[in-house]
Amino acid sequence: MVSSERAARIGILTVSDRASSGGYADASGPAIRAVLAEILASPWEAVARTVPDGVESVRDALIRLVDDQNCDLVLTTGGTGPAPRDLTPEGTEAACDRMMPGFGELMRRRSLEQVPTAILSRQTAGLRGKALIVNCPGRPSSIRISLLAVFPAIPYCLDLIGAARIETDPSLIQAFRPT
Question: Is the pTM of the predicted complex or chain greater than 0.90?
Answer without folding.
Answer: yes
